[in-house]
Write a structure and sequence with these properties.
Distance between the termini: 42 Å
Strand content: 25-35%
Shape: extended
CATH superfamily of the largest domain: 5'-nuclease
CATH class of the largest domain: Alpha Beta
Largest sheet: 3 strands, parallel
Oligomer: single chain
CATH topology of the largest domain: Rossmann fold
Structural class: alpha/beta
Helix content: 10-25%
Protein name: NYN domain-containing protein
Strand order of the largest sheet: 3-4-5
CATH architecture of the largest domain: 3-Layer(aba) Sandwich
Order of helices and strands: EEHEHEEHEE
Number of strands: 7
Number of domains: 2
Radius of gyration: 21 Å
Number of helices: 3
């Protein structure tokens, strides 16, 4: 797997057409890099089904090219929207199905801290640890996600 980085450029912040003297960093090229790699990988037969995780309407152009060049070759594209977002409505025009992830979907994918692979214990890297006191959705009462505390943390402490 190759990681292709986009880049960030500084932009001046203006209010009512007047420069504030502040700058913000704006991402550039990520959407086009994703689109190009998705199309090229499809042409190179790297996948049969591609999942495009984005709510960016610019990716409707990707869906258009995909439907013209890869769908006839048996490839399938599924638009996946991040939590609290929806996939671009333009996908349906090109026959792209879409689904929306929830926070609970993502939390269900957290790797256990200890796994066994062919009888050998494997430890989850510490950089993949969830926040302290986080509880897997399957271990929560009635499988419901807890309400986050007022301070904005994404889970409540585990009760002993």
């Amino acid at each position: 797997m190759e990681i292709i980085n986009g880049h960030y450029v500084p932009e001046n912040i203006e209010e009512n057409g007047i420069a504030t003297g502040q700058t913000k960093w704006t991402e550039k090229q990520t959407d086009i890099n994703v689109a190009l790699e998705l199309i090229l990988d499809g042409l190179n037969d790297v996948y049969d089904v591609a999942l495009l995780l984005s709510a960016d309407t610019d990716q409707v152009a990707t869906a258009r090219v995909f439907s013209q060049s890869l769908h006839p070759k048996g490839k399938m594209l599924v638009g996946v929207a991040p939590p609290d977002r929806s996939a671009p409505s333009g996908y349906s025009k090109y026959g792209v199905k879409s689904v929306s992830l929830t926070q609970q979907d993502i939390e269900r994918c957290v790797i256990n801290d200890r796994l066994t692979l062919n009888g050998v214990p494997v430890l989850r890297p510490t950089e993949y640890d969830p926040p302290k006191n986080w509880m897997h959705p399957d271990d929560r009462p009635r499988g419901k996600p807890p309400r986050p505390p007022k301070k904005g943390s994404w889970s409540k402490p585990i009760r002993s």
